[in-house]
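Help! Submission page says 'invalid entity' but I think these are all valid:
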Amino acid sequence: MRRLDLRATGRTAVRYRLLVLLVIVAIFGSITIVDFFSVDTLQSVLNRATVVGFLALGLTPVLIAGQIDLSIGSILSMAGITTIALQPVIGNVPAALAGLGVGVLIGAVNAAIVVVFKISSLVATLATLLIFASLALLLTDSQPVSSTDPIFGIPLTGDLLAVFTPRSALFVAAAILMFVWLRFTPSGRNLYAVGSNAAAAKSAGIRSNAYIVATFLISGLFAGAAGVLQSLSTATGSPVAGAVMLIPAITAVVIGGTRLEGGRGSSLATLGGVVALGALTMMFEFNGVPAYTQAIYTGVLLIVLITLDRLVSGDGRPTSRTLRRARVESPTPRGIQEEA
Amino acid sequence: MTATSTALNTRTSTPGALFSTLSVPIAIVALLVVGAIISPSFLTVSNLVNVLNANAAVGLVALGMTFVAVCGGLADLSVPANVAMGALVTLGAQSFAGPFAAAGLGLLVATVGGVVNGLLIGYLRINPIIATLGTGAVLLGLSQQLIGGGIVYGEPSALADFVKGSFLGIPVMVWILAVAALILTPVLSRTAFGRWNLAVGGNYEAAEASAVPVRFTKAGAFVLTGLLAGLCGVLLALSNGQARPIIGTGYEFVAITAVVIGGTSLFGGSGSVLRTVGGVIITALIGNLIILGGLPTQATGLVTGAIVVVAVGIDVYFRRKGGRE
């Protein structure tokens, strides 16, 4: 019983780490920066976190299902250049929809490689990362595409309700919708089962492959949305826009508490991770900290949080010490029933 | 795991085993034939030597990445940071330490990066992707802070001349890759450490139960990769005479691609260093052919990615078929 309590308190601590982080940022921010606590700051944090936020949100169900999608950065680039390049041909809104379509299409390619050819998602999306980053450069001849209608995207970053801009409102709404899906619908809960133990989920009658396909389509759609929003707000489609986005996106998801091993995670946690990371970046920038120093802090933060997570909750694979203890306590060894 | 058994019985005559044994040499021969048809300047000694020379440094990283993949450590994404660290320290410390000590210092710093990875992944059991993502960000940031985000220039030295020179008509860089491969091939296939790597990657729990030092082994693979990434950085810095923090950008993916094309599974339990050398040669030849064939260089990723999917897809197909028989 005592171990159970320990685990429960550990989980609570891990759950509140985001809050702790935000409080630290708020305190440091209010000490070092005049007017840090303002609606404008929050609006700006949310607005600027939107692009990485959409990537991170799309990644969340993929990770819950125990897969990974490294190609989201390349999807972002492809969707961005599609949106901008098609604007003069088919009009603004259809071009944006085409950008989303490209995202879903690349997601479908990922899903096909993973499910049909049975290639692990790490290798499959590494390949599509290379393929579509390369294709984006080929299509644009390595030059950014400028929009013919730069006015169209400006309202996306304008004022909406107090703390929101239209695009950050979209992001928060998407996070809440995803939360409802994951938490309150049978299909959302089945996704966790697929991620924790695909074989067991299959024997329980859950069509694991269908769920894996769905997660890659979602991740493609969301990365596409990130690309469309970014290209429209900057009025440029850059073929390398996504190359630097993958790592912040993974960091945000992991800081939020979603595991790369699958079976655990939440879109609201990802939202929290994105906002915390965004607030941290904003505070650094206000203080004039160079980008490379920010990278150091972000990296240390990632390592510290994930180490805490491992030490406190001690979940995942049992350490040899707990295994030994379990062996002493009970004749049937625990933790041997790992995935084959 | 079936992967271990295929690694141990490569002489069985199932189509899958045959494919996995012969695919790398056949691919290299095919590329040479195609290249000879496409361009008359392809199949010349000077071109092939140049191709090898240009890819020798990243080839070293791929050798280390083989151990990481074999022991089930997925991949080391901190490679660009360790390459940058090795390169920047090598040139930055020259003024006060002399070229040799500076190069040694560069190797040491990168190895320390590998040790940190090893502690996080082997001993704390943090997911390798996250851990190396984090250490990579920290180390790359540190390397940039070290030089304030600019370029470091090296001074001419006997060591730099040696690295840039050649021996028996073959560049020293290629010799270094060859020697490293000749040392590491038996290390993986014949020594206890190599066997431990295969065992840990094949079945972690079984290896632990068989008294294999699982944590040490996994950590060791990442330390080795850190060391080799550092060596890659040192060699690049000395041969270029200058270094920037972005010197190793993308090397992690090139190395992973070479490992995968060589036929080593990223999920552990099987693989060989020699196959990775084959993978390095294949990726190098593809890059060269794209340029000689008049295709834009941006197409490299497209072709490499497609080849990864096809090669791994065929391998998976034969393994599943072999499993059913």
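Support: the input was valid. A stray whitespace character was the problem, and the output above is from the cleaned input. The first strand of chain B starts at residue 152 and ends at 153.
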